Amino acid sequence: FNSFSAERDLNKEQKLGKKLSENIEKKHEVVEDSQKNLLIRQIGNKLAKVSELKGMNYHFKILNIEGPNAFSIPGGYIYVTYDLFDYIQSDDELAGILAHEIAHVIHNHALKQTRDNTKFTLLTILAVLLTREPDVGVLGKLTTITLLNQYSREYEEEADLTATDLLIKTGYNPVGFLTFLERLYTREMFKPEVNLGIFQTHPETENRINYVKDLLIEKGIDIDRRATTDYLKVNIKYIFEESFCTGIISIDNIPILNLSFPKSHEIYLKMIEATQNLDKF
C-alpha cells in the first residue's frame, strides 16, 4: 500500500482520533446495545486483523443518529448508526460496510483528503489539530470529510478495492456491500423522503455501484445476490412417500406451489432440476 510512508505517524493519528471521538460522542449518544456492539466488534476486529497496516488500534461504536450511516475518523475509530441495522440483511452486508470504513483508515484517506483540500502536508495537519486550540478551518474540513464521506472518486475506489480484499481474506461474501448499496439506491429512488444519511443518492451513486460490480467480476466473484440478502429467498421442501414425491416451493417462507409426481416420472426429474435454478438471478 502507498499509505505506509515515512510521513505517517500512527501514534499521532490515534491521539487525534481520540480527541475527535470525544467531540463526536459529546454531540451524539453512544448506543449501549450489547448484542449489536458485540457483532460490529467481532466482524470489525476480524477484518482489521488481516490488514497490512499494523499498529493501529480499532474502535467500533454505534451512534444514535437518524438514518443509515457509517464513517471513520483518523486513529481507527469506526462509527455506524443504530438505524443502519434496519437496512442490512446479513452479516456479509455489515462486513462490507465496516471493511470499507477500515479501508479508509488503512489508506489514511481522511487526512489525505484534508491535505488535498488545504495543500498542507500530513504532518502539518496533525500538528495544527493536536494543539490545545486547533485550527478551526482545518478541523472543519476534516470533520466534513469524515462525517459526510466527502472523498474523491480515487479514494472511494481505493477503499472499495481494499475492502474487497479484506472480505475475501476473512471469508465474508463481498457481494454483501453491492446488495446493500443497491438496496439503498432503490429505496431512495422510490422513497425520496427517507433520510439515507451519507448514502443519500447523488449522481455518482449508480457509477459507484457499477464500479463495485465490475470489481467483483474482475476478482472472479460470483454475484449471487440471494446469498447476502433475505429478499425473495426461495426454499424447496421435498416430502417423499413410497412412490410419490411432493415438492413444496416457498418464497420468503410463503408456500406458493405444491407439485406431486411419481418418483420415476420424467417430470419429477425436471422439477428437481428446475427448482435448483429458482434461487439464482
Q: How much is the radius of gyration in Å? A: 23 Å
**Number of DSSP-assigned strands:** 6
Mean pLDDT: 82
How can the largest sheet be summarized?
3 strands, mixed
Strand order of the largest sheet: 1-3-2
Unreliable segments of 5+ consecutive residues: 1-6
Q: How many DSSP H or I helices?
A: 10
Order of helices and strands: HHEEEHHHHHHHEEEH
- Gross morphology is elongated
What structural class should be given to the helix and strand makeup?
Answer: alpha+beta
For the terminal residues, how far apart are their CA atoms?
36 Å
Number of domains: 2
Helix content: 40-55%
Strand content: 5-15%
In short:
With 281 residues, the chain is of the alpha+beta class. The protein is 49% helix and 14% strand. Helix 4 packs across helix 6 (136-147), helix 7 crosses helix 9 (205-218) and helix 8 (175-190) packs antiparallel against helix 9 (205-218).
Mind explaining what this structure looks like?
The chain has 281 residues and is α+β, with helices and mostly antiparallel strands. The chain folds into two domains: 10-227, no CATH class; 234-276, no CATH class. Helices cover 49% and strands 14% of the residues. The protein has ten helices and six strands, in the order H-H-E-E-E-H-H-H-H-H-H-H-E-E-E-H. The chain has helices at residues 10-27, 34-49, 91-106, 109-118, 122-129, 136-147, 153-170, 175-190, 205-218, 266-276, and strands spanning 59-63, 70-73, 77-81, 234-240, 244-251, 254-262. The strands form two sheets. The protein has a three-stranded mixed sheet, sandwiched between helices. A three-stranded antiparallel sheet has the order 4-5-6, with helices on one face. A hairpin with a 2-residue loop joins strand 5 and strand 6 (254-262). Helix 2 crosses helix 3, helix 7 (153-170) crosses helix 9 and helix 8 (175-190) packs antiparallel against helix 9 (205-218). The chain is elongated, with a radius of gyration of 23 Å. Its cofactor is Zn(2+). Pfam families: Peptidase_M48. InterPro entries: Mito/Outer_Membr_Metalloprot (IPR051156), Peptidase_M48 (IPR001915).
